[in-house]
Protein 1
Amino acid sequence: MIVGAVTGFGVSLTTGNVYAGIIAAMIVGGLLSLIHAFISISMRANQVVSGLALTMLGLGLSGLVGRAYIGKPLYDRLPQMTIPLLVDIPILGPSLFKHDLLVYISFLLAPALWFVLFKTRIGINIRSVGENPSAADALGVNVYAVRYLCTCFGGCLAGLSGAYLSVAYAPAWIEGMTAGRGWIAVALTIFVLWSPARALLGAYLFGGVEAFQFRLQPLGVSPNLLAMLPYAFTLIALVAASRETIRKKIGAPSALGTPYVRE
């Protein structure tokens, strides 16, 4: 996510095309995720250690590359797109129908991914690889290819989310601007019980809590109190998911975090 943010901003600033920056961020995010895939899938190393190492690499790499972009504004930011008629709906209209293209894509992407996972053969293969890779392999599913493709796709989305921060949410480069949002994404997966459809609601719930701090600040409520709530939920969710009995109850994939060794 953080490398996607610096890539999206740098390419957008250099080319003057924000969409080129977004595409570049997705490509870089996908390439970085392949490092994690190689270590955890092919080399069968500990996925948590690999992920933490990649996180440190991304933070250092983005800080190094982003030095040239500090203090430079991005004038060609991602434009807002207002949907006529729908934006005039009281309360909900301005909240839902006055955003940029990536927000609208998020509205569609979550139910689309839910449909793919639970209503298509591709989704059956993906879930079977997560639940019982040995059985999936016996049925002719290439477990390693599925895991590589899914990891790469997740990396592309992580790069996209980072680019959104630097070209739309706050069109500038600030070192460490993701501020731990990637960890919230991990906790959100557990919080919504591995469902893309529920993830849409959970993500905007977490985002609403973050935005709500600015509303309560004039009332004397410390913004730091609300700012820490998403991270507190993150810790609770990660601790809960670390227990095997709880993982089974909340519907975590049976082979989650377990390297597959073909017999």
Protein 2
Amino acid sequence: MGVINAILEFHLDIDQEYQGWIMIFASMTAVWLFCLPCYCAGMSSATSRKFAAWISQRLPVFYVFITLVNAAWLYLVIAWLPDYTFGNYLGIVAKCMGWMAAHVLKWASSLIMILAFAIAVAFKDRIALLLGVDHKQIFNCKARDCLSCFGSSRFQAIEILIWKVEDLPSADLFSANNIFVEMYLGYNETMHTRVHNNAGSDCIIKESAHFNFDEDDLDEKLVLFVRNQQVVGAQELARKEISAQDLREMLSKARASNNQRVAWSNESFGDSIQLMPRGRIWLKVMPVEVEELPTC
């Protein structure tokens, strides 16, 4: 009991202004503890996510326990601050809530704009996918361009060879697929293969395309679309996104092989790449030796 009495009788000898800041941080900590399951669920640690899943099955018990913990925590903080009492703290909280309720209508438009901006930033990838522009480079300028004085020396020429596609879904039950492949990579213009009429679910492509590629730009990605040519427009059958890191690994393997001549065979292309939602594609990435023009 002597230890408990010593803890309860302890007082911080600081100015009232600093006591107010301590109460603000103590209150924010109490609110954060209530949000602990959501915080742990969003962490990258597998242990934290398992803890959040375990808590989500016992939410009533968790909130009763956290309420008791927060009450004890705030009681101790208030007991340590000489200018605060529990009744005084509740009065300040009620006054703040009343002031916020009285001014919430004035902030409504600003809060809606901030909330809309936060949602747009948090779900920008999903919104771009919904609008169908997730694969397009809208602005052909990045901070890297400014830092390199808009030079092109960091780019290298690569060749993407597409051998074949297989196991594609059918776009129309009454006609075979007219297949072509569409490719996007960074600042490069969109590249297409020719349309292979009445190809069905499998198609031998045997075509290639050249791109400029910056190995150090990890934001770049190669986006492949396998489409079905229709009378009006084209319908997407499958897609695949290949990151810059995967492209670098493919280039490293091609350089290590020291074999610039590629045969249209399994020995040259190796394993296929799975498409979404269904299908497979065989492709290979090769470096291109660019010959410089002779100087006068």
